[in-house]
Specification:
Elements: H1 2-21, H2 25-48, H3 58-67, H4 71-93, E1 98-99, E2 105-106, H5 108-111, H6 114-134
Antiparallel strand pairs: 1-2
Amino acid sequence: MMKELIKSAENDYAVADILYKNKQYAGCITYLQWSSEKLLKAFYIQETGEQLTSHIITGKLFKLSRKIPNSVKKSKVITIANLHKHFETIGTSSHYPISFDTGEVIIPHEYYDKDDAVLAFKIYMKIKKIVGGMIQ
């Protein structure tokens, strides 16, 4: 399952790149979030042997970090969990309209811009670098 997750993550990244080049920033952010999640799930499976059925990985990573005796590895797991929290915040809102009590509705493709996508790429690349160094 790990290899399939990594391959799927690579595909999602390629789609994100195409969307970025076509100025479809909300879609780009969504695919970066999905790619990040798949890399993190592959790492989690490697470390625990547990298959994940949920989309929520951040909490699982924080719990995993408490079980890791190696302080360097523990620090890396906490870092990737904190980075992925950004995607859990913007990732969901990048592909679903959001309505507020005030009646205001944010439509993702009208809200997210190039700067948001650039930030998402930076977060993704940090996650990929850390996770890539820990996946075997």
